[in-house]
């Protein structure tokens, strides 16, 4: 019999709808029930593509005896962290403070006042590797609640007070300048893995936001060291097992420092960010590998993540059926020499050599994750492409990983930006159309008549959870990018609505600090506030970037001032923890550079206008904004008062709306905006 989660819109919650656990969603009624029954709340937080979340569910939440104990002694609340990042952030902060580590599934025990008092992540069904069994944890917490209530209340109250007092004081500090950006680069150099690319050891995550900073820093300063770290890291990831060598797109992270074996889940946000990074890497270097990876990643998103409504689904699972009825991590992606032979016949040896497939394997049970290592000597590219196509077709016959069809506003904003730019760079109007389709969905379904955003939607129905700061910032970023690519002023207007809401609801007017939830959002035990990047740009740094770009497009001084004030936290944190402030550092590079404002005026049907527009988009000047349209048009502020020069399509390069002389010469424009090596 289904539990209360049967009515949820989250695919993750729906995965637990048939558990014998009497789950509640996060809602006041759950805490009222705990208060009425005088029992603690068990909070379980995860997401649909989380491998260990599935393991815990199978081992414990599907077990009748365990569920019966939970139902008798607790009110159990299940949360999808992707729907409620605010709930996840508040209690993850408590978990990390108490245990020194975090992760998902997150398991937290709360009082009926939502104050946490005991923490953990995954617990096994029996004691293992120093971890207690889940049933032991349940019994221990119940015993403490029943016999030592005063002690539990004291601990919970202290934790709640400590969390509530954690306020950041970095707002309104001066934005970082050249000195801080140079210090951040030095810090990254110290942490750089010169042998394998990337930063730090295992597990190793794609440093997409740091790579954006490195590319922008090189564009502004000419630092060859910054560029080389970006090039080498991009190549190592693209040739490694973290990249899907057949279907394109990146897995969440590598379990080793060599990028060989991934954790196989594929997230929309990673692929949107990395698609854009590789497009920018190509823009700076002309690398054919970067071009191929950008396009393949874009095609992966459109082919496998686009929903029937035009948005992009959140994720593909790491696990899938191995063909024998067992759900196994990576089963869809890995190969043995025998499997290659079944598909390729005489070409199997060639494929095994070039993809690094061995008898010993690089994964489990003799299977290998496909890689693309360098090989000396002649290479038959045509033959290799044919083999890739044959293997991809054969793989399509395997049971596919499950897809989380939930549309997350922020991640779709990132996808809009990536697809719009990639389509414009490489002459792929279909990708630009895909970006427009997702942007249309965000306006139509996620935005209300007051420009308030819903965090998620599914199957054409908006979810009940309010958007958080990253939703407003990343969707605005997508709209601003789309305005630059299409020349359609409506996207700039929509971005302005969202950013006005950021100023009104998410910004501390006295300090300039930003919060992750709106002033009128549900009150938790702490109002979450985190300026550091994690898997995606922090809402704080993403908002600073969008505010700065909007100000460059419109001349809006309040938005520029807000961006500068918000960047004060980057001055404080960037030189100390550059790996976790990459996007803030990238935005700071744009501020130091201007950013440059490029207005391209001319008839839309004139090829010279299109050529100037493309040169403007391919400029590497950090954070440069582009407007294109008819001369002296009022649709985009950058075009107002900009006539044709000599009657020809023309480009104006400006800073703070003060412009150089207009030019109709494409090469001169390239020189003015940093043309890179793209062709």
Question: What descriptors fit this protein?
Answer:
single chain; 679 residues; alpha+beta; Glutaredoxin; Glycosyltransferase; 4 domains; 5-stranded antiparallel beta sheet; 48% helix
Structure description:
The protein is an alpha+beta fold and 679 residues long. The chain has four domains: 4-164, Glutaredoxin, CATH 3.40.30; 178-318 and 403-593, Glycosyltransferase; 333-395, no CATH class; 597-673, 3-Layer(aba) Sandwich (Glutaredoxin), CATH 3.40.30. 48% of the residues lie in helices and 10% in strands. The chain has 25 helices and 17 strands. The chain has a five-stranded antiparallel beta sheet with strand order 7-8-11-12-13. Strands 2-1-3-4 form a four-stranded mixed beta sheet, with helices on both faces. The chain starts with 10 loop residues before the first helix and ends in a 6-residue tail after the last helix.
Could you tell me the radius of gyration in angstroms? 26 Å
Instruction: Give the class-level CATH name of the largest domain.
Output: Mainly Alpha
Structural class: alpha+beta
End-to-end Cα distance, whole Å, is: 61 Å
What proportion of the residues form beta strands (DSSP E)? 5-15%
Number of strands: 17
Approximate helicity band: 40-55%
Question: How many structural domains in the coordinates?
Answer: 4
- Structure annotation, total helices: 25
If classified by CATH, what would the architecture of the largest domain be? Alpha/alpha barrel
Low-pLDDT runs: none
Q: Return the average pLDDT rounded to an integer.
A: 93
Biggest beta sheet attributes: 5 strands, antiparallel
Fold-level CATH name of the largest domain: Glycosyltransferase
Please list the strands of the largest sheet in the order they lie side by side: 7-8-11-12-13
Shape descriptor reads: globular
């Amino acid at each position: 019999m289904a539990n209360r989660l049967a009515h949820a819109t989250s695919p993750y919650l729906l995965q637990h709808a048939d558990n014998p656990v009497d789950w509640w969603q996060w809602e006041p009624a759950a805490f009222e029930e705990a208060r009425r029954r005088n029992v603690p709340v068990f909070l379980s937080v995860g997401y649909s593509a989380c491998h260990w979340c599935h393991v815990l569910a199978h081992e414990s939440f599907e077990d009748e005896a365990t569920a019966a104990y939970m139902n008798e002694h607790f009110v159990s609340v299940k949360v999808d962290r992707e729907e409620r990042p605010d709930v996840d952030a508040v209690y993850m902060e408590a978990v990390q403070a108490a245990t020194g580590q975090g992760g998902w599934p997150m398991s937290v025990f709360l009082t009926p006042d939502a104050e946490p008092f005991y923490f953990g992540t995954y617990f096994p069904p029996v004691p293992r590797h120093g971890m207690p069994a889940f049933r032991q944890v349940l019994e221990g917490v119940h015993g403490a609640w029943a016999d030592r209530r005063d002690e539990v209340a004291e601990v919970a109250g202290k934790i709640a007070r400590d969390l509530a007092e954690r306020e950041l004081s970095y707002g309104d500090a001066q934005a970082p300048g050249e000195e801080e950006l140079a210090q951040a680069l030095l810090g990254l150099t110290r942490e750089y893995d010169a042998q394998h690319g990337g930063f730090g050891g295992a597990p190793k995550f794609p440093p997409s936001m740091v790579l954006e900073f490195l590319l922008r820093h090189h564009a502004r300063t000419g630092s060859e060291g910054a560029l080389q770290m970006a090039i080498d890291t991009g190549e190592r990831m693209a040739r490694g097992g973290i990249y899907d060598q057949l279907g394109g797109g990146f897995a969440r992270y590598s379990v080793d420092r060599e990028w060989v074996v991934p954790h196989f889940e594929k997230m929309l946000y990673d692929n949107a960010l990395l698609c854009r990074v590789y497009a920018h890497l190509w823009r700076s270097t002309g690398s054919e590998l970067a071009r191929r990876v950008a396009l393949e990643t874009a095609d992966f998103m459109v082919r496998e993540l686009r929903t029937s409504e035009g948005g992009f689904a959140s994720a593909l699972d790491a696990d899938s059926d191995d063909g024998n009825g067992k759900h196994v991590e990576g089963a869809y992606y890995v190969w043995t020499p025998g499997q290659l032979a079944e598909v390729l016949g005489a070409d199997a040896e060639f494929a095994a050599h070039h993809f690094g497939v061995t008898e010993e394997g690089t994964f489990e049970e003799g299977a290998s994750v496909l890689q693309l290592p360098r090989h000396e000597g002649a290479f038959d590219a045509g033959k290799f492409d044919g083999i890739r196509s044959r293997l991809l077709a054969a793989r399509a016959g395997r049971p596919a990983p499950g897809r989380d069809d939930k549309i997350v506003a922020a991640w779709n904003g990132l996808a809009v930006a990536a697809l719009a730019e990639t389509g414009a760079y490489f002459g792929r109007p279909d990708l630009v159309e895909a970006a427009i389709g997702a942007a249309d969905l965000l306006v139509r379904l996620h935005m209300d008549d007051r420009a308030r955003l819903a965090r998620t939607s599914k199957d054409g129905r908006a979810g009940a959870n309010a958007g958080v700061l990253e939703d407003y910032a990343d969707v605005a970023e997508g709209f601003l990018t789309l305005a630059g690519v299409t020349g359609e002023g409506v996207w700039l207007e929509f971005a302005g609505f969202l950013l006005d809401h950021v100023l009104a609801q998410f910004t501390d007017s006295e300090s300039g600090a930003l919060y992750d939830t709106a002033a009128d959002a549900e009150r938790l035990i702490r109002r979450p506030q985190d300026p550091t990047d994690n898997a995606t740009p922090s809402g704080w740094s993403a908002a600073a970037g969008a505010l700065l770009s909007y100000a460059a497009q419109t001349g809006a001084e309040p938005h520029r001032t807000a961006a500068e004030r918000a960047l004060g936290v980057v001055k404080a944190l960037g030189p100390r923890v550059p790996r976790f402030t990459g996007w803030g550092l990238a935005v700071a590079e744009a501020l130091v550079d201007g950013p440059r404002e490029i207005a391209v005026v001319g008839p839309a049907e004139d090829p010279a206008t299109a050529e100037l527009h493309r040169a403007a988009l391919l400029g590497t000047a950090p954070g440069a904004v582009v407007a294109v349209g008819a001369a002296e048009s009022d649709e985009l502020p950058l075009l107002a008062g900009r006539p044709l020069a000599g009657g020809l399509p023309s480009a104006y390069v400006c800073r703070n709306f003060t412009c150089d002389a207009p030019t109709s010469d494409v090469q001169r424009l390239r020189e003015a905006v940093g043309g890179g090596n793209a062709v």
